Amino acid sequence: MSTMEEPLYPIAVLIDELKNDDIQLRLNSIRRLSTIARALGEERTRKELIPFLSENNDDDDEALLALAEELGVFIPYVGGVEYAHVLLPPLETLCTVEETCVRDKAVESLCRIGSQMRETDLVDWFIPLVKRLAAGEWFTSRVSACGIFHIAYPSAPDMLKTELRSIYSRLCQDDMPMVRRSAASNLGKFAATVESVHLNADILSIFEDLTQDDQDSVRLLAVEVCAALGKLLEPQDCVAHILPVIVNFSQDKSWRVRYMVANQLYELCEAVRPEATRMDLVPAYVRLLRDNEAEVRIAAAGKVTKFCRILSPEHAIQHILPCVKELSSDSSQHVRSALASVIMGMAPVLGKDATIEQLLPIFLSLLKDEFPDVRLNIISKLDQVNQVIGIDLLSQSLLPAIVELAEDRHWRVRLAIIEYIPLLASQLGVGFFDDKLGALCMQWLQDKVYSIRDAAANNLKRLAEEFGPEWAMQHIIPQVLEMSTNPHYLYRMTILHAVSLLAPVMGSEITCSKLLPVVVNASKDRVSNIKFNVAKVLQSIVPIVDQSVAEKTIRPCLVELSEDPDVDVRFFANQALQTIDSVMVS
Amino acid sequence: MTFAVDIISSIEFDRTGDHLATGDRGGRVVLFERTYTRDHDGNRRDLEKMDFPITRHPEFRYKTEFQSHEPEFDYLKSLEIEEKINKIRWCQSANGALFLLSTNDKTIKFWKVHEKKVKKICDMNVDPAKAAGNGPVVGPSIPTSYKPYTANGGCLDKPLGLSNDFSFPPGGVPSLRLPVVLTSNEMSLVPRCRRIYAHAHDYHINSISNNSDGETFISADDLRINLWNLEISNQSFNIVDVKPANMEDLTEVITSAEFHPTHCHMLAYSSSRGSIRLVDMRQSALCDSHSKLFEEQEVPGSRSFFTEIIASISDIKFAKDGRYILSRDYMTLKLWDINMDSGPVSTFQVHEYLRPKLCDMYENDSIFDKFECCLSGDGLRVATGSYSNLFRVFGCSSEASTDATTLEASKNPMRRQVQTPSRPSRSLGTLSRGFRRGADSSGVDTNGNAFDFTTKLLHLAWHPTENSLACAASNSLYMYYA
C-alpha cells in the first residue's frame, strides 16, 4: 500500500471506489472513467482498465448502464480509432445482461464505436462479435445482436455478407418472441444497408415471415418495417410487395396490429407514393375509421387531417368526410375527443365552401358535446377555422359552449377554458368580447378554487396586453377595483394579485392614479395576510412608478406596515422598504 | 408442532422442470433444484430420508429461500395485508439467473435469483488503515470511503476541478493501480427483487400468469384482470372488469385466470358460478365480452342448497398443447376441449363420498376450500388434492375416469381405493428445508371413512416433462414419481 502524493490522492480514491460497496460512489467513479483513464495513460487503460471493467458484469443495473454509456465515448482514452476494438469485449458482456435498458445502451455504444472503426478492424473484430452475440445461448445476447447488424454489414466482404443475411433471417425465426421482436424492429435499419439485389430476395422473404408471425407483438412491429422498406424499394416493387401487406394488416385479427396501421398510415402512404394511396389505402383507412375497436378509431381519427392533406379535396370529401361525420357522434368520448383535436385542420384542406357546407355542422355538434374535453379541443384550434370561414358563422354556437365550459363543475375544465380566453379574444375581436365574455372574466375572479382565481388574474393581464391599456381602463379596472371591498379576504387578495399583474401593463400614470390608492387603502385591512400582500404588491410597483410617488405615497404606507404587530407583515414591509432604498440609490 | 407461517400456499415447477418453487404463508419463497448425480457424501444431513437406497429418480434439493413479502398495513383502508404467497410463476431465465413472479393478496414482485462469485478486493491505492484512521471500516476487505472524501464524491469537486487543467504525464501515472479482484470459487445465491407491481388491485389477487410473448403477464383479483408489461411496474391495463355498477347485483367473481401456453392473445378465466370464459385479446382492448363460454348445464331436479357453492371453480390449468383446459370445482375435475363449448370432455369425481356430508362441510367452512389441479406434461393424466392429505390421479385417455389412483401425501404412501393399480407409485419422502417440520402428525384412519378436514392437500404441481408430482400437505413438500 503506497502513500499517495497530494494531487493524485483524489484519483486514487476514485479508482478504489470503482469497487466500493456504496452504489453512489461506484456510479460516481464510473462517471469519471475518462479521468481515471487519463491518469493511467492510454496503454494501461487498454491493458488494465478495460479488462478490469470487462469482469464487472454483476454490478447493479444503474452502474452497468453508466458503464455502457461511458464506454461509447471512450475511443480517445484508449489511444484512438486504431485501438477502438479493445472496447468491444466489455460492451459485449453488457449486451448480454437481462436488464433491457442496459442492453440498449450497450448496443447504442457499440454502434457508435463501430461506426468509427476502420474497415479492416470491423472485419477482424466487430463482425465476429456480431456472430457471437447472434449465436448466444441466452436470448438476451441474440436480442442485442439484431441492433448492430447495420453497422457490421457494409464493411463485410461478400462471403460474410451472405452469412450475415442468413444469420439475420435465422434471428427472425428464433424461438424466443423477444428475439423476433428485436429482429423486426431493427429490420428497417439493416435493410437500408443491404444492396438492392438482396433486398428483393432475402430481406423481403424475411419480412414476409415476420408479417405472418403468430405473435401479435411481433406482427405489430412489422408494420413499422413497411414504411422503412417502402422507402428503399422501387415504386413497382413497393406496390407489389408492401402494399398488400399493409392492406392485410389493416384487416388483421388483432386490434393492436390495426392500431399500429392507423397510427402509421401517413408514413405508410408516403412510402407507397400517392397513386397507390388513392387506390388501395383510402379504403383501408376508411375501414380503420369504422373499426369496431375504439382504440383503433382513436388512432385513426387523430390522423384524419394529416391523411386528407395527401389526398385531393374531392377524394377527401367523397371518402373521408362521411366517416368523419359518423365519428363526430361516435359512442366513445375519446374518439370524439381525438377527432375534435384535429378536425379544425381539415378546414384549410377542404376549402371554404366545403368547410361551411360539410365541416361546420360537425364543428357545431362537437361544440355541443356532453364531454368537456371534446369542446375544449375544438375551441383550442379555433384560429385554424377562423382563417377559412370567419368567426361570424361560429360565434353563435361558440358562445353557449364557452359559457357552459366556464361554469363547468370540474375546475380543471374551467382552468382550460380560461387559458384559451386570450386566444378567443383575439379571434373574436373587442366588440364580441365586451358583450359576451367580459362578465365571465370577472366572475372567475371570485371562483371557489384558488387556481381559477389565479388564472383569472393572469387572464386579465393577458387581455390588457391584447387590447391595450385604454380598453383595460374602461373594461377591466373599474370592475376589478369594485371588488376590492369584497367581504371575503381571499377575494380581496385575488384583487391585490390582479393589481400587481396589471400595473406593469397599464403603465405608471394609471397605476398611480387608479391602482395605488386601492392598494394603500388595503394596507389598513384587518387581515394580516392582506397586509403583507400589500407590502409585496407595493414592492413590485416601486420600479414602475416615479420616485416621488414612491417616497410620498408608498414609503409612508410601508413604514406604517413595518410597525405592524404581525411579524410577517413587518418582514415583507421591511423587504419592500429595502427595495425602495436600492431603487433610490441607483 | 406446525406453525401457520410454514404452511405451503403455492407450488410451481419452472418450464424446464429443473427447479421447483414453493411459497408459504410466512411470505417466504423456497427454491429447490433438481440434481442429476447422486452423491453419497454426508452433506445431505437428514434433509431427506430415502425410501429406496438406489433409485433412478432425480431428486430435488433445497437451493435457497428468501423473504418475498412482508406483512403490511393499508392505512387508508385500515386493512392488514397478509404476507402469504398466493401464487408463484416462473419467468424466462436468462444468463443463468432464475426469474420468478410471486404475489400476495395485493402486490406482485419480480425476483431474480442468481449465483454470484464471492469476491474479495485488495491492493487498493489508498490504505484504509492509514487513511487518517477515521471512519470505521465496514467490511474486512472493502474499505469505505474516507472522511475527507466521502459520499457522492464530494471530494472530487475541488481536486478534480483542477484536473481539467492538470495534465497527466503522457504515459500515465505509474504509481496508480487498479484494485485487484480476487474471485473465489465460492458461490453465493443472491435473490434480488427487481420490480414491484403494486396498487393495481382493489380485491385479493388470486392468480398471476405469464404470457408466451415473454413480455407481459396478467394478474387477476375477484373482479378484475390486469395486464402488465414485465418491464413496466407503474402502469397496468385493466382488460377484464366484472364489477357491476351496483355491488348488490354481484352474482359471480373471478376465481382463477391463465394465459394460453402458446397463443399470446388468448386467456381463460374461471368464475364462482362454474363457468370458464375464453378471451381473445385481439378482438378488443377491453375483454369484458368473452369469445367462448364453457359451462355445464345443470341437471334438472338435482338442485340443492349447495349446488351453487360446489359449482365454484377453484383452479383452471391449460394443458401444455393449449387445446384442453382442466378445471377443479369442489366435487369434480373437468377436462374441457377449447373447441367444444357444449360440455366437458370428461368429468372425474374427486370425492363423491362427501356428497352426503356437504352440510357438515358447509358448517365448518371446508366447502369453500380451494383445491388446485394439474395436468401431466403429456396431457394424459390429471391430478388434484383432497382431504386427509390425499390426492387423486386420473388418466384422461378414452375410458378415463376408471383409471384413478388415490395416494396419500405422507412418508409412507398408502394407496387407497385403488381401482386399477396401473403403475407403481412411491414417494421419495419429504424435502423440507433445513429442519424438519412435523410431517406425519395426524393419525389418519386408513379405512377411508374418517376424513380429516383439517389436513387438506390444496396445492400440487406436475413436473412439465416427467411423471412426477410435487404436492404440499400443510408444511411439507412431497415428491411422487409414477
From TrEMBL, chain A:
HEAT repeats: 10-48, 164-202, 203-241, 242-280, 281-319, 320-358, 359-397, 398-436, 437-475, 476-514, 515-553, 554-586
Keywords for the protein's UniProt record, in alphabetical order: Repeat
GO molecular function term, any single one: protein phosphatase regulator activity
Superkingdom: Eukaryota
Species for this entry: Salix udensis
InterPro entries membership: 2AA_helical (IPR055231), ARM-like (IPR011989), ARM-type_fold (IPR016024), HEAT (IPR000357), HEAT_type_2 (IPR021133), PP2A/SF3B1-like_HEAT (IPR054573), PP2A_Regulatory_Subunit_A (IPR051023)
Official protein name in the record: Protein phosphatase 2A subunit A2
Entry's family note: Belongs to the phosphatase 2A regulatory subunit A family.
Residue ranges constituting the Phosphatase 2A Regulatory Subunit A helical domain according to the UniProt record: 358-519
A GO CC term attached to the entry: cytosol
Domain Phosphatase PP2A regulatory subunit A/Splicing factor 3B subunit 1-like HEAT repeat: 274-351
Annotated coiled-coil segments of the chain: none
Claim: Repeat is one of the keywords in the record: yes
UniProtKB/TrEMBL annotation, chain B:
Keywords: Repeat, WD repeat
SMART domains, per the entry: WD40
Region (Disordered) location: 411-443
Polar residues: compositionally biased ranges: 417-430
Family annotation (InterPro entries): PP2A_PR55, PP2A_PR55_CS, WD40/YVTN_repeat-like_dom_sf, WD40_repeat_dom_sf, WD40_rpt
UniProt keyword annotation of Ribosomal protein present: no
Pfam families in UniProt: WD40
Presence of keyword Repeat: yes
GO CC term (a single one): protein phosphatase type 2A complex
Domain of life: Eukaryota
MF terms in GO: protein phosphatase regulator activity
Similarity comment: Belongs to the phosphatase 2A regulatory subunit B family.
Function summary: The B regulatory subunit may modulate substrate selectivity and catalytic activity, and may also direct the localization of the catalytic enzyme to a particular subcellular compartment.
Subunit and partners: PP2A consists of a common heteromeric enzyme, composed of a catalytic subunit (subunits C), a constant regulatory subunit (subunit A), and a variety of regulatory subunits such as subunits B (the R2/B/PR55/B55, R3/B''/PR72/PR130/PR59 and R5/B'/B56 families). Interacts with SIC/RON3.
Protein name: Serine/threonine-protein phosphatase 2A 55 kDa regulatory subunit B
Provenance organism: Salix udensis
Taxonomic lineage: Eukaryota, Viridiplantae, Streptophyta, Embryophyta, Tracheophyta
